[in-house]
């Protein structure tokens, strides 16, 4: 998944929810294997502030790399961001985010979208060995269950300006509130020499 042809960047409006996602042209743009099953990369969604917390801490931004299997299964890789140096991935989206923000439709009542073109995904693929895994649900309607969540243990840096560009397209309080575990088990995988960004 070094570079992919992105289909569009869309701001969605639902009955009570708004969210933003970047989708990709059909075809093989990357896969991940979880539990022996192959999931194909479908889209990226963003939420500000983060929907996941670590030790009760919420972060300024969270990206969801959504993958789907041929039998309808879903697994999501979640990347958490804290303020720091700019993230190189978002430099290539700066003009398109501004274009989406300038769309003349009534954002919040109808969808808006812009074509993005070729997107280089290498910086989104930074390795981190540690991650949390649990069975949960989608965080946007219809909040479908049986989603395998993989929350990376390394918190990435992003500039406040980059977060502001993304957050300007999202409603205030875009993040779904933290949900009770309801008997779910959250597993933490931390192989030797892995990088984590929080207190154990």
From TrEMBL:
Tell me, what is an example of a GO biological process annotation in this record?
A: one-carbon metabolic process
**Which PROSITE patterns does this one have?**
ALPHA_CA_1, ALPHA_CA_2
Cofactor(s) required for function per UniProt? Zn(2+)
Q: Which GO terms describe its molecular function?
A: carbonate dehydratase activity; zinc ion binding
Protein keywords: Lyase, Metal-binding, Zinc
Query: Taking every annotated instance into account, which residue ranges of this chain make up the domain Alpha-carbonic anhydrase?
Result: 1-190
Look up the EC number in the record and give it.
4.2.1.1
Function description:
Reversible hydration of carbon dioxide.
Put simply, this protein is called Carbonic anhydrase
- Organism field: Zizania palustris (Northern wild rice)
